[in-house]
Design brief:
Layout lengths: L6 E5 L4 H12 L3 E6 L2 H11 L6 E5 L5 H14 L5 E4 L14 H29 L2 E6 L3 H4 L6 H21 L4 E8 L5 H4 L5 H7 L9 H11 L11 E4 L7
This protein binds nicotinamide-adenine-dinucleotide.
Protein name: SDR family NAD(P)-dependent oxidoreductase
Family: Belongs to the short-chain dehydrogenases/reductases (SDR) family.
Pfam families: adh_short_C2 (PF13561)
């Protein structure tokens, strides 16, 4: 199979980093399924990439719902073939002090930001393993490494969970030509950032050694490398992309 014909499934592709990743992979020649719970935005991104839907497919699904994930994977399989590349990017960035987070809100954020990664990875990894080639990238966060300043404890705990799930699946799949890695951005200029109180984004930028927020296309380029053939010896890693905010 040529690289041009690979099928990529990107979650949370309706805006921000997910839209940039989908765009990058599409430009690199992949067939791209863009999944999001916001149908209007994901259709707009997919149509912008390919108006007639031959090479970019908008899939409306809520990653909180396993049946919707199953249907989404089936749809992609029937349109092209089971995904060769999965990018688990969808997440909710939710603030809240440890004293204020309600337990049902905790469960909700963990479901979107962590359980969905487990469920969708399992669904997509089985055919990758059979085929003997696959690439999975999980979009984590500096918050999962150090605890967040913007998002709450539920978000940070979920992202820490994503980092260890990355290793668990990487070990499970390494012998089958399937790599699993995480990228850990810090503050990236996306609609999630626009929702912050005025001046907060500038404060965050001032605290970053390179002196600015990251751009979605910078994360997308890194993901593009991780899903390439060249990255076959790289698995179970967390690749920091944070402007020097965490050096280790
Ligand atoms: N922007 C940042 O500074 C930053 C920093 C670190 C990590 N991240 C991570 O990068 C990823 C993308 O972040 P972003 O800033 O682009 O976010 P964003 O909020 O701009 O976009 C997230 C997308 O995911 C979709 N989504 C949310 N919940 C969903 C669900 N249940 N089912 C399906 N789709 C759902 C939204 O509709 C939206 O299109 C997330 O995993 C986030 O945690 C972002």
């Amino acid at each position: 199979m040529s690289v041009e014909q690979r099928v990529a499934l990107v979650t949370g592709a309706g805006q921000g980093i997910g839209a940039a990743i989908a765009t990058h992979l599409h430009r690199s020649g992949s067939l791209v399924a863009l999944l999001d719970r916001d149908e209007e935005s994901v259709r707009a991104v997919a149509t912008g990439l390919n108006p007639d839907g031959t090479t970019a497919l908008a899939v409306r699904a809520d990653v909180d719902r396993i049946t919707e994930l199953e249907s989404a994977v089936e749809l992609v399989g029937s349109r092209w073939h089971a995904p060769d590349v999965l990018v688990n990017n969808a997440a909710r960035t939710v603030a809240g002090s440890v004293w204020d987070i309600a337990l049902d809100e905790w469960d909700g954020v963990l479901a979107t930001n962590l359980r969905s990664v487990f469920a969708l990875t399992r669904l997509c990894a089985a055919p990758m393993r059979e085929r003997g080639w696959g690439r999975i990238v999980n979009v984590a966060s500096l918050a999962g490494q150090q605890g967040g300043t913007v998002a709450g404890a539920h978000y940070s705990a979920a992202k820490a969970g994503v980092l260890v799930l990355t290793k668990v699946f990487a070990r499970e799949l390494a012998a089958f030509g399937v790599t699993v890695n995480a990228v850990a951005p810090a503050s990236v200029r996306t609609p999630a950032m626009d929702a912050l109180p005025a001046g907060r984004a500038d404060e965050l930028a001032d605290a970053i050694p390179v002196g600015r927020l990251g751009e979605p296309h910078e994360v997308a380029s890194l993901v593009g490398y991780l899903v390439s053939d060249s990255a076959g010896y790289l698995t179970g890693a967390t690749v920091d992309i944070n402007g020097g905010s965490l050096m280790r």
